[in-house]
Write a structure and sequence with these properties.
The protein is an alpha+beta fold and about 250 residues long. It has seven helices and nine strands; from the N terminus they run αβααβββαβαβαβββα. Among the domains are: about 80 residues, RNA 2'-phosphotransferase, Tpt1/KptA family, N-terminal domain (Arc Repressor Mutant, subunit A); about 90 residues, Alpha-Beta Barrel (ADP-ribosylation fold), CATH 3.20.170. Helices cover about 30% and strands about 15% of the residues.
Length: about 250
């Protein structure tokens, strides 16, 4: 393996260990109870890092081959670090008094349902929130180019019975957040009905001949024009004159 390629493998390996083994919360990630995360979700996080937009699943698998499975496991397109040093979510107790406000995000098209039914679990069967608005925005853009960011009145929700579990320094998870504890921007106004698209006029192609059935090439019939009075008599006289010439 070329030295340049070996350096890239080592750099990616260190980044994977930091994300998966040390501080997944710093990247807005909550791993499952076995420490796994879909590779697809991991790649979104890696692409946010400087000079890492080139990374694909094949590069991640190259790291696994290089370290001979000593640091990472891949099972059914999910990956985990074998040397995890963070406290897993399952080892955390619900907070009696969570932060006053937390931030969360959803896809724009989902927002009306959130205001009606509350915030329901997403991937991993958890509602993920954070104390860091910038991190909430970062997480949101992995789902939607125009996401909706809103506030969660966490302390009020906790007093009402919603349990909040901490994960790392800035993430919190819950099973469900009722709608009355969600504060967000107003719903966008309904868009006007789309007009039926106007069919573009078809242009003739070179060498083609288009017969316009709506056109009448007889000039005497165009626009409903009538033949002048006495045309039959005049035509009869013309025929007689022509016949006389041949006699």
């Amino acid at each position: 393996m070329a030295k340049k390629n070996i350096k890239k493998v080592h750099t990616l390996s260190r980044l994977l260990h930091y994300i998966l083994g040390m501080r997944p919360d710093e990247f807005g990630l909550v791993l499952d109870h076995e420490g796994f995360i879909p590779i697809k979700e991991l790649l979104k996080v890696i692409h946010e890092e400087p000079h890492m937009a080139y990374v694909r699943e094949s590069h991640v698998r190259e790291v696994i081959l290089h370290d001979r499975g000593e640091l990472f496991d891949i099972v059914e397109r999910k990956i985990r670090s074998k040397k995890r040093i963070f406290i897993p979510l399952e080892g955390q107790a619900a907070l009696p008094k969570p932060p006053k406000l937390l931030f969360a995000s959803v896809k724009r098209k989902t927002y009306p349902a959130v205001l009606t039914h509350g915030l329901l679990p997403g991937p991993g069967n958890r509602v993920v929130m954070t104390t860091d608005r910038d991190l909430a925005i970062r997480i949101a853009h992995r789902q939607d180019q125009q996401p909706v960011i809103f506030e969660i009145k966490a302390q009020a929700a906790s007093k009402s019975g919603t349990a909040f579990f901490p994960f790392g320094d800035s993430l919190y998870v819950a099973d469900h957040v009722p709608a009355q504890f969600i504060k967000g921007p107003p719903l966008p106004k309904d868009l006007p009905e789309q007009q039926q698209p106007v069919k573009a006029k078809k242009e003739p192609t070179p060498g083609s001949f288009l017969l316009g059935l709506d056109k009448d090439f007889n000039r005497t019939r165009r626009g409903g024009a009538k033949k002048k009075k006495g045309w039959k008599e005049e035509a009869r006289r013309d025929r007689k004159r022509k016949h006389a010439r041949w006699l």
